[in-house]
Amino acid sequence: MPSPLFTLQNVCQQFGQFLALSDINLQIYPGERVALVGSSGAGKSTLLRLLNGTLHPTQGEIWAMERNLQDLNARSLRQIQRQIGTIYQQLHLVDNLRVIHNVNAGHLGRWSFLKALVSLIVPLEVKTATQALAQVGIPEKLYERTDRLSGGQQQRVAIARVLVQDPLVILADEPIASLDPALSRDVMDLLKNLSQPPRTLIVSLHDVDFARSHCDRMIGLRQGRILFDASPDLVSPQMMVDLYRLEP
Ligand SMILES: Nc1ncnc2c1ncn2[C@@H]1O[C@H](COP(=O)(O)OP(=O)(O)O)[C@@H](O)[C@H]1O
Ligand SMILES: [Mg+2]
């Protein structure tokens, strides 16, 4: 068994008085494709932010690549974060820039400030950006203004940016929430293909069918707690009913 990519020990996340995650214990191994499922407010986005180190838990420990995230100085944390590519639900693209600049933002963890600045004026690494866009199926959009693209194409730009980063793990927060069913399938196929082992994928999903078809592990979160953590074929209809049950 390889060593875990992530280990969470007794993790709690509190926002004021509100307990968004309680007593989370889990390990994620290289090459796994993990779906986080659960209703809105269950704690999926919070968990993803804890994994990428942009949020520090109020209790417990988070280990990523055998380093305790809380023990790291800013520089070491950035080194770990270079290996963690996140696709946020809001995409965080700069609308009025051309696609290539948004894709190149995937280099920012590696580039000097000066190179990053120059790249805003003179597009750098055109070949890498073109390759990444080809991988996500829109190579012709390299010099298009990002806000002229459709929602599905913008989602692909966000994925291309992560490809340029070339991380060990991709975290994706509801990557298909705003897409129609056909596009959703394309984007999920893409994420699955791009996360061939040893690359790891952790994706939060509303659509349980895609969690089943595209992931090999499902973690059900309910009100900040893990309700189940199992391979999709072991997640029964009753478990799904319990996951989305309205009453406490
Ligand atoms: N920065 C924050 N401040 C206060 N409450 C927050 C913050 N972030 C998340 N929450 C709350 O924590 C809970 C879990 O949120 P979230 O992780 O976004 O859930 P999900 O992604 O599953 O919809 C929600 O009730 C949300 O309102
Ligand atoms: Mg969320």
Overall 3D form: globular
> CATH homologous superfamily of the domain at 32-41 and 83-244, by name?
P-loop containing nucleotide triphosphate hydrolases
Indicate the percent of residues in helices: 25-40%
- Provide the succession of SSEs: EEEHEEHEHHHHEHEHEEH
> How far do the termini sit from each other?
38 Å
Q: What is the number of beta strands?
A: 10
CA radius of gyration is: 18 Å
CATH architecture of the domain at 32-41 and 83-244: 3-Layer(aba) Sandwich
Question: Care to give the gist of this entry?
Answer:
By secondary structure, this protein is of the alpha/beta class. It is built from nine helices and ten strands.
Description:
It is built from nine helices and ten strands. It is of the alpha/beta class. It has a domain at 32-41 and 83-244: Rossmann fold. The strands form two sheets. It has a six-stranded mixed beta sheet with strand order 6-7-8-3-9-10, sandwiched between helices. A four-stranded antiparallel beta sheet has the order 2-1-4-5, with helices on one face. Strand 7, helix 7 (181-194) and strand 8 (200-205) form a beta-alpha-beta unit. The site of adenosine-5'-diphosphate (ADP) has 11 residues, from strand 2 and helix 1.
